[in-house]
Amino acid sequence: MKEYFALTLKITEEEWEKLQPLIASDNYLGAEEIEENGMLIVKAYFKTREKIPPELLQMSKSQESIPEKNWNEEWKKYFKPETVSEKFIVIPSWMKEEYPIPKGKIPIYIYPGQTFGTGTHETTKLTIRFIEKAIKPGYSFLDVGAGSGILSIAAKKLGAEKTVACDIQKECKEEIPFNCKLNEVSGVEVFIGDLKKLNGTFDVVAANIEKHLLEPLVPEIYKKTKQFAVFSGILKKQRDDFAKTLKETGFTILEEAGEGEWMAFFCKK
Asked: What percentage of the chain carries pLDDT values higher than 90?
């Protein structure tokens, strides 16, 4: 049985920021952060222990292996149908045949695999709401850090034509087409690899990624944007720094929105 690996760290926010370049790789799956007495308790998840930098292992307070099946069972406990925007409702794939679609809503069916993006997280909801404002029928769309492909599926259902889902996680190559098929959506191109190696420009670009991974991508996203860009994955306490990065890159912030502790930006090139 396949297992994931988790490390628990107790560090300052500044120390966590400095660690980001060290852990950024296709082995890193993400992290949970809890603030406690001025310190961060960080639980970071990885695909394998072998590819984790040794210095990170030495810093950890605890380490554990997590069986893959536990992830799927947890999703099924907590992943329920949820209205995420004015137009969209996200529904677990196993409820597709039994759950009645509310009048006026567009369903997105998602199977929670190994990638991020069920649509119920605050950052995904915020991104979808801005995509609704940006996409017009016939527009091209780029999804940076696509995960499950939920944003690309939403864009297609809003009438986007050329749509590319870009991610560094190899699992996306199977999971995005699977979720597209669930939604009877076709024409989403999956690109696995470095954003710089992706050719073309797009009417709308969306990126829902944690700030430390997203910020270095902003200049490249600017190059690939024709009209609008949507950014999320930014904590409210990181708002000013990230807004400065957007403006210095050349983006004009048209609108901001927040939910919980998270922020999203709707920008024009």
From this structure: 60
d(CA 84, CA 126): 8
What CATH code would you report for 3-71? 3.30.70
Q: Where are the domains of the chain?
A: 3-71, 123-268
Which amino acid appears at position 26 of this protein? D
Tokens of 181: 């098929």
Q: Treating both helix axes as pointing N-terminal to C-terminal, what angle do 172-182 and 150-157 enclose, rounded to 10 degrees?
A: 40
Rounded CA gap, 32 and 34, in Å? 7
Q: What span, in angstroms and rounded, lies between the C-alpha atoms of 250 and 257?
A: 20
Token readout for 153 is 């599926």
Tokens standing for residue 105: 């809503």
For the chain, what is the HEC assignment?
Answer: CCEEEEEEEEECHHHHHHHHHHHCCCCEEEEEEEEECCEEEEEEEECCCCCCCHHHHHHCCEEEEEEHHHHHHHHHHHCCCEECCCCEEEEEHHHCCCCCCCCCCEEEEECCCCCCCCCCCHHHHHHHHHHHHHCCCCCCEEEECCCCCHHHHHHHHCCCCCEEEEECCCCHHHHHHHHHHHCCCCCEEEEECCHHHCCCCEEEEEEECCHHHHHHHHHHHHHHEEEEEEEEEEEHHHHHHHHHHHHHHCCEEEEEEEECCEEEEEEEC
Q: Average pLDDT per run of 10 along the chain, which is 269 residues long? A: 83 85 80 82 89 89 78 66 93 90 94 65 94 97 94 97 94 92 96 95 96 94 98 93 97 96 95
CA 185 – CA 158 distance, rounded (Å): 11
Closest CA relative to residue 225, chosen from 208, 250, 242:
250
pTM for this one? Answer: 0.77
User: Does CATH number 3.40.50.150 belong to domain 123-268?
Assistant: yes
